[in-house]
Amino acid sequence: MGFLQGSLLVVAVWSLSSTAFAQRTIYCCDDDQGRPICGDLLPSACFGRAYREISPQGLVRRHVAAPLTAEEIARRDAEERRRKEEEARLAVQRRLDEALLETYMSLDDIDVREERALAEVERTVVDVRQREQDLIERREELRREVEFYRDRDVPRELASEIRLIETELTAYQNVIAAKEAEKDAIRTRFASDRRRYAELLATGQGRR
User: Fold this and answer.
1) Can you give the C-alpha Rg of the chain in angstroms?
2) Which residues make Cβ contacts (< 8 Å) with residue 107, sequence separation at least 6?
3) Dihedral sign, CA of 172, 174, 177, 179?
4) Over 80: is that where the pLDDT of 19 sits?
């Protein structure tokens, strides 16, 4: 082998070893006292700890976090569930807001629709109360007729009609109670719609 060839071989070997050295990674972590522990391979003392990958020039190439504990995993999973639940809640609220804005033209429109809904229910209540009053008057007539039979048996038809009226009056009272509850529900619903619509107006999402 000539001198030139030998020199070239030495240069090539030195170049390869220098490249390998430049690419070598040093692994370091800190012990419980904060002292660094390093090695060409990840030291066993670094297992389960956060560690750093460092170049031979002392530059940190990468930080590797410590594995999560069971408690940390549970907290992470709980936080992820809360995040997804909040996203789902917000998605539902967006759909409700869109429906609200499509339903009403303005706050005044909400007032008009509430009055219309209440008036419709009130018409039913007035009609039922009128029929109730008619039955009450008819019951009083029948009771006066019963007075004629103070010392005798009341005719079956008369007693039967009185019982039927009592049953119908109870039914009418239930209807009236249900309609009053319906009016309360209407007021509650429109109050909620009005409040949310005003909030959307305040954020510039609704129509004036």
Assistant:
1) 43
2) 194, 197, 198, 201
3) negative
4) no
